[in-house]
Amino acid sequence: MARKKNGMRLAAAVIGISALALTGCTGPAATPGGSEGGETGTTSAPITLGTTDKVTSLDPAASYDNGSFMVMNQIYPFLLNSKPGSAEPENDMAVSAEFTTPTDYTVKLKPGLKWANGSDLDSKDVKASFDRQVKIADPNGPSSLLGNLASVEAPDATTVVFKLKSGNDQTFPQVLTSPVGPIVDDELFPADKVLDDDAIIKGKAFAGQYTIESYAKNSLVSFKAFDGYQGLLGKPANSAANIKYYADSNNLKLDVQQGNIDVAWRSLSPTDVEDLSKDSKVAVHKGAGGELRYIVFNFDIMPFGAKTSDADAKKSQAVRQAAANLLDRQAIATQVYKDTYIPAYSYVPQGFTGAIEPLKDMYGQDGGPSLDKAKAVLEAAGVSTPINLKLQYNPDHYGPSSGDEYAMVKNQLEKGGLFKVDLQSTEWVTYQKSRVTDYPAYQLGWFPDYSDADNFLSPFFAKDNFLGNGYDNAEVGKLINEQRVETDRAKRTALIEEIQTKVAGDLSTLPLLQGAQVAVAGADVKGVESTLDASFKFRLGVVSK
Question: Residue 168, Cβ neighbours under 10 Å: how many?
């Protein structure tokens, strides 16, 4: 196995654009009430962020994407959270959180918490929030992160006990800071179904740094600082904030240049970033990141999938392995992304504990493609060529270069006549809903919920995983559960390595590229760099001008 020696900081210094922020000058700077991080007074100047990321749903049970989580981070409370510049869980709505037994994780809430609508925020809300995640189990939601949760108890108004299936879960505090962690008002949100956005806005069940004052979905969201927020981040740096949505990254770039928005976060092309880096009014910064871009295979409807007329598990695996042998990741990274991404040969990005590169050893030739190996694996399985493969990508959510990226993937797969690729694209809101049922193979990207290798394993390869792609390997599932509760660091690392190797043989997904976070900030905007650093979240409340 080829082991990675570079740390996250080194990786961030040489790899590129996954979640980026660009900040333009917007006129005279407002003076913040103090230093960033929330322990300050609040200014009256609003901060405006622009993005091409779309909101799927404001209900935490129904969305598991950057665009939705961006808004949730501003409006919902969490039991645990992380400060800008850190990925370590700390108390947010909690005053304490600890294992009281190996399988009991007990959280004590701050007393007297309130929702913006005036209702009490107590342990009943917390229990209901996690119970409904498990019960609804929306295919586009983050409930897969709760695979180790057996039940939730609320013995009194300020005490919550999470009963875990396996003891000493080393990832559970991080899970509480992730997209499955927002707390919702049990008097507003149904226990067994998703609540629509308009009802959420009307119910004002907010208790984060901000409340939503007006909401035009995927057009403009306006926020107002919430005086009742008692969490880790403190008072926001700005009393008001906006998120403006763009269908075209060219318009996003133009508004950055013209100073019409203060911050742009996802997504501009590498060429756009290169151009803007030459602008004397802005400075380019890079932060830690762990984005992976990859192809997902649907084990049910891909060629020879379990629900096709010619289902054959061995032939289906051979198709995936042939694709792995044909891909030239370095060519994509260089020609499409100007080396702002690096090739990815595993499921855990370099810089994370346990990261190895089994795909480099198992497929292709020295990290490059091998037509001979692709032919051999298909011939051994008795697969006739060309293989007709429907491949879907999204043109807006993962940046404007996705079209060029997947045009190269198509060309690489069709080399030698082994594949005939039907390449199609769909806009994000439809894409997010259709990917589980309609696409035999499709583009997806992953931005970590928390800084641990498990976040690249459990959501994808545990039973009933987030992908919903029909993959289920009992041995891999067992190893995932073991690593999660292993307290010996060396043993846990070995388990993480073993999981990567086994999944590389199955090829449930096919990793392509690894990226980092990039920020470009104007002189009058503060806090962007620390917000991007390590926590993988963007919070309007710590960005000021």
Answer: 15
Q: Which two tokens stand for residue 36?
A: 């960033």
CA proximity to 294, closest of 248, 341, 335: 341
C-beta separation of 76 from 233 below 8 A? no
Give CA–CA dist 445/64, Å, rounded. 12
Task: Decide if pLDDT at 530 tops 90.
Answer: no
The three-class DSSP label of residue 181 is coil
Residue 523: both structure tokens together = 């002189």
**pLDDT for the residue numbered 545:** 82
Full 3-state SS string of 213-278: EEEECCCEEEEEECCCCCCCCCCCCECEEEEEECCCHHHHHHHHHHCCCCEEECCCCHHHHHHHCC
DSSP string, 452-473: SGGGGTHHHHSTT-TT-SS---
d(CA 464, CA 142): 11
Place of tokens 């050893």: 361
Count CA within 13 A, CB hemisphere, residue 380: 12
Burial of 86: CB neighbours in 10 Å, binned 0-12, 13-18, 19+: middle
Instruction: Give the phi and the psi of residue 180 in degrees, each rounded to 5.
Output: -90, -5
Q: What is the DSSP secondary-structure string of 145-172?
A: GGTTEEEEEEEETTEEEEEESSSS-TTH
Give Cα 267 distance to the centre of its chain.
14
Q: Name the more confident of 475 and 366.
A: 475
Please report, rounded to a whole number, the percentage of residues in the chain having pLDDT higher than 70: 89
Which tokens hold the place of 131? Answer: 């119970």
Residue with tokens 């107002």: 224
* pLDDT score recorded for residue 120: 98
C-alpha to C-alpha distance for 33 and 268, rounded to whole angstroms: 32
Residues 278, 261: Cα–Cα separation, whole Å: 19
pLDDT of residue 232: 95
pLDDT > 50? residue 486? yes
CB-based contacts of 505, cutoff 8 Å, min separation 6? 362
List alpha helices for 439-538, DSSP H. Answer: 458-461, 474-485, 489-506, 528-532
Entry pTM: 0.77
Burial readout 522-539 (b: 16 or more C-beta within 10 A, e: otherwise): bebbbbbbbbbbbbbbbb
Q: Cis before residue 401, ω within 30 degrees of 0?
A: no
For Cα atoms 289, 494, 168, give the angle at the middle one, nearest 5 degrees: 80
* Separation of alpha carbons 244 and 261, rounded Å: 8
Average pLDDT over residues 136-141: 93
**Rounded to whole angstroms, how far apart are CA atoms 404 and 45?**
39
455's tokens: 């976040």
Q: Which two tokens stand for residue 105?
A: 């994780």
Distance CA 270, CA 274 (A): 6
Residue 261: how many other CB atoms lie within 10 Å: 22
Q: Are 462 and 477 in contact (CB under 8 A)?
A: yes
Q: Can you tell me the distance from the alpha carbon of 420 to that of 261, in angstroms, rounded to the nearest whole number? A: 44
